[in-house]
Design a protein that fits this description.
Layout: E1 2-7, E2 10-15, E3 18-22, E4 52-54, H1 65-74, E5 79-82, H2 84-93, E6 100-102, E7 108-111, E8 114-120, E9 128-134, E10 137-141, H3 151-159, E11 165-169, H4 179-189, E12 193-197, H5 210-218, E13 222-223, E14 231-233, H6 234-237
Parallel strand pairs: 3-4, 4-5, 5-6, 10-11, 11-12, 12-13
Antiparallel strand pairs: 1-2, 1-14, 2-3, 7-8, 8-9, 9-10
Helix pairs in contact: 3-4, 4-5
The structure holds zinc ion (ZN).
Length: 239
């Protein structure tokens, strides 16, 4: 399985010919609200070539109309999934209902070689996290969420086993875990590797990944910061 951090909470997962994007924010749409990107998008939306786009919740940095609509138009076979509020927004934008799958916490969706489980998140409305599984590897992407006691248990139950990678938000603002809470969640989950995310996109809502990485390593768990746009082979990353 290959993994590319798209920046913020966004990831591209690839297994063979299957490409799944989670929370791609590939425009600068939020500059109009005073939130300019700190670096250019690693892909043009049309070039992402995803067969499935999962949006964990209906916020512009996770469901970006200027990202999802170019994808929807460029790839008529691309499907979309997310909690009901996401699906409703996609349909309002003009994505055909038949291309959308509702994926609420506790739900599951198969797409090609990927099995996607939606996990609980506490952020806004019906936000979810995601566990994507392919090639016997499990990747947890927290989406945006606050820390809560049952979170690790819920994720573990959805994953049905050991987590190979956990990508967790660390920005500590606007309804997201602080780096300390993110490290606590990783300590509960004990994945083979933890990576911090949801930083480095907007100057007013970023965080230093250093303290998170140090705290996770102190617990005897591997941690690494990813480089936006650089595709890595997950098994290599886990070595
Ligand atoms: Zn966000």
């Amino acid at each position: 399985m290959k993994l590319t951090w798209l920046g913020q909470g966004g990831f591209l997962l690839e297994s063979g010919a299957c490409r799944v994007a989670v929370d791609p924010y590939l425009s600068d749409a939020l500059a109009a609200k005073g939130l300019e990107r700190m670096s250019p998008p690693p892909y043009a939306p049309q070039a992402l070539a995803a067969g499935l786009v999962v949006c964990t919740h209906d916020h512009d940095d996770h469901l970006d109309p200027q990202t999802v609509m170019p994808i929807a138009l460029a790839r008529p076979d691309c499907r979309f999934a997310g909690p009901p509020a996401v699906v409703a927004h996609l349909i309002r934008l003009g994505v055909a209902q038949g291309r959308c799958d509702a994926l609420a916490a506790g739900g599951r969706l198969d797409h090609g070689c990927f099995s996607i489980a939606a996990t609980a998140a506490r952020h806004e409305g019906d936000a979810i996290g995601v566990v994507a599984e392919a090639e016997g590897l499990r990747v947890y992407i927290s989406g945006d969420t606050l820390f809560f006691d049952e979170l690790a248990r819920d994720v573990r139950r959805s994953a049905g086993g050991v987590m190979d990678l956990a990508a967790v938000c660390i920005n500590g603002r606007w309804g997201n875990m602080t780096w300390q809470e993110a490290a606590m969640l990783v300590g509960d989950l004990r994945p083979r590797l933890a990576i911090p995310m949801h930083y480095g996109m907007f100057a007013t809502n970023t965080a230093d990944p250093g303290p998170f990485l140090a705290a996770v390593r102190e617990m005897g768990i591997s941690a690494a910061a990813m480089e936006v746009g650089r595709t890595v082979e997950l098994r290599e990353l886990l070595k």
